[in-house]
Amino acid sequence: MKPDVVVVGGGPAGSATALLLARAGVGVRIVERARFPRRKVCGEYLNAGAVAALGRLGVLEAVREVAMLLRGVRLVTPGAPPVELAFGGAALACAREVLDALLLDAAVAAGAVVEHARVDELVMEDGRCAGVRVRGDDGELTERRARFVVGADGVGSVVARRLGLTKPPRRGGRYAVGGHYAGFGPLDGHVEMYVGDGAYFALNPLSEIRANVMVVVPRERLAQWSRDVDAGVGGAAAALGRGVRSFEGATRLGPRVSIGPLTHDVRRPSAAGALLVGDAAGFLDPFTGQGVFLALTGAERAAEAILGALAAPGREAATFGAYAGWRATDVVWRRRLGRTVALLVAVPALARRSAARLARFPEAGATLIDALAGAIPPQRAFRPAVLGRLLV
Ligand SMILES: Cc1cc2nc3c(=O)[nH]c(=O)nc-3n(C[C@H](O)[C@H](O)[C@H](O)COP(=O)(O)OP(=O)(O)OC[C@H]3O[C@@H](n4cnc5c(N)ncnc54)[C@H](O)[C@@H]3O)c2cc1C
């Protein structure tokens, strides 16, 4: 049977979109190229907004059972004492192989069908996206037609590319390398961010003894590490930790993961018959940890737009336009906020000043965290009493 919707990609954006559509009685096929459970390069921090969205999807209890409750963030900048900011709402750390498999299972339980295959091409008819062409394990290319296609296939989205929506990549994107580690000193429920020297290292406790470690560096640095990336990651983390966090005795559990350049954006998030959701619709600098929150809230908006278009085909332009309008305001402000914070921590003098001001004005830090987690609109962080206070 021809499904109403084909969703390309079974990450948080794709699974959540499929779950919401299937729950509303829509026929959904998810096409996912990876076999789950699969690793995803991610800091694995779920902000309070992502946690609330998991609650609305009905999977929060299951996630809580396998996640670590986070209390706050500890920011360490060169030459300044560490600053601790408490999270306003419940935030969690959860390994993505567990979270993503759980969300995909929830979509299947709601009625979605999952096909293991890679989408290579789109079916276009009269300028409209009418389905996808998938390549299975046997190498054969077959068509999957649908009334709507959702591109939830992450950074470098093939759906965005085939629709001609991808913007040329920005130069100078950074690279992330990391993995799961054990053997640190005690982990106390704080995400630890160490910044400086054009790079940063984030440590996110997945349990009392196991942590996600990600080092984000410019391309040249990665090239210098090519002979021994583990030593490079350890060295960069140790240098950024500067006596606050020791890497000595830490050992990697499982594979090292890497990704880059960290850049992907689109001219618009929809075309006739197709919507982009999550990272496929534009990637935000990972420093502020808004990605899963945006994937889940974007899925809610995308499902609403598709349900509206399925109910009244003449309304597609209006419902897809409303979705694009949301991304053009909320997400654009989030990207600005992410870039501003990234800039503040990238320039050593600014980072030192911001850390000192955060310690002096904790309410500015609390507002910033609320804005990043969706408790208040991101624009509010640009008020003089928030970002302004960190600088002046
Ligand atoms: C270094 C780093 C650290 C990060 N840290 C955090 C963090 O701590 N907190 C946070 O909230 N966000 C973080 N993010 C961002 C977060 O990982 C993403 O925003 C999030 O995964 C987006 O979900 P998604 O479903 O859109 O895409 P993805 O999770 O990338 O899922 C896309 C899926 O599509 C599948 N796919 C791709 N192409 C095809 C194809 N052609 N055919 C079929 N299937 C396909 C892939 O296999 C994948 O399963 C980080 C990102 C990076 C790079």
What descriptors fit this protein?
single chain; 392 residues; alpha/beta; D-Amino Acid Oxidase, Chain A, domain 2; 3 domains; six-stranded mixed β-sheet; 12 helices; 27% strand; binds flavin-adenine dinucleotide
Structure characterization notes:
This protein is 39% helix and 27% strand. Strand 7 and strand 8 (128-135) form a beta hairpin. Helix 2 (48-57) packs parallel to helix 8, helix 8 (291-311) packs antiparallel against helix 9 (316-346) and helix 11 packs across helix 12. An eight-stranded mixed sheet has the order 3-5-4-12-13-14-11-15. Strands 6-2-1-10-17-16 form a six-stranded mixed sheet. A three-stranded antiparallel sheet has the order 7-8-9. The protein has three domains: 5-68 and 90-170 and 263-335, 3-Layer(bba) Sandwich (FAD/NAD(P)-binding domain), CATH 3.50.50.60; 175-259, D-Amino Acid Oxidase, Chain A, domain 2, CATH 3.30.9.100; 347-391, no CATH class. The chain is an alpha/beta fold and 392 residues long. The protein has helices at residues 12-23, 48-57, 60-66, 96-109, 158-162, 219-224, 229-241, 291-311, 316-346, 348-360, 362-372, 384-391; strands at residues 5-8, 28-32, 45-46, 68-76, 83-93, 113-116, 118-125, 128-135, 141-145, 148-151, 175-182, 190-196, 199-205, 210-217, 251-259, 270-271, 274-276. It contains twelve helices and 17 strands. It starts with a strand and ends with a helix. The chain is globular and about 60 Å long. Flavin-adenine dinucleotide (FAD) is lined by residues 8-14, 31-34, 40-45, 50, 118-119, 152-154, 158, 176, 214, 259, 262, 278-280, 286, 289-293, 295.
